[in-house]
Amino acid sequence: MEIPVTGFIIESSDLNKDGEHSHVLYLTSWDGRPVHRHHFSGVTSVSDGHDHRYAGTTEPAPTGVPHTHHYMTITSINNGHRHEIRGVTGPAIPLPEGGHYHKFRGVTTVDGTHPHSHKYSGNTSPSD
């Protein structure tokens, strides 16, 4: 099955560790539907006497159909370490005035001098 996808590629002048350049792909439609993203941010639970702040943008998903978004970000550095946050949002939750948002939750990677993780949860920003 083929799904038509449109978008554009931006070439990066930065070289990776192998001396090669990279590209960033920005999708603009998926199967004829425009794609959209959501912002997400929050503060983790307290663990090992501290918390972490985080913020990011979800991966794109098609508009107007049931969908979820993948997300990934790195927390702030607290107590000399940081954690990775990665997951998939819940399904779209419609808003009365139009658009939608998603719930997300999970547990960070384990890190720190005293290895530990943090819980996190929240709602994405609304879609346009």
From TrEMBL:
Pfam family, one: YmaF
Domain of life the protein comes from: Bacteria
InterPro entries: YmaF
Region of interest: Disordered: 107-128
The name this protein goes by in its record: YmaF family protein
Organism: Niallia oryzisoli
